[in-house]
Amino acid sequence: MADEFAKGLGILTSAGLAWMVLAGWYTTKSFEEGQLLAPPPTNPDVYGSVGLFLKDALFWFAILGALTFWVVIPLLDQAREALAERGS
Hints:
Layout: H1 2-26, H2 46-87
Helix pairs in contact: 1-2
Transmembrane segments: 9-27, 57-76
Protein name: DUF7314 domain-containing protein
Organism: Halorientalis persicus
């Protein structure tokens, strides 16, 4: 179980850090207002569009990746063990 926790934590921290960097570049108007949560630029160039797409993809990868390793995989292991005990 420690292995799954470490993998989930690694995904959460690395993808979360990359999300914060991209959000700081593209969705921070000024340091006096709400940082990382401002609306994205209305007409970004090609690299801006890729960056905004990556920002959204990394956010969901961080959330779903951590939940997969912390919740889904342990539940599947427990279900597999319960079915193996029941079948034997």
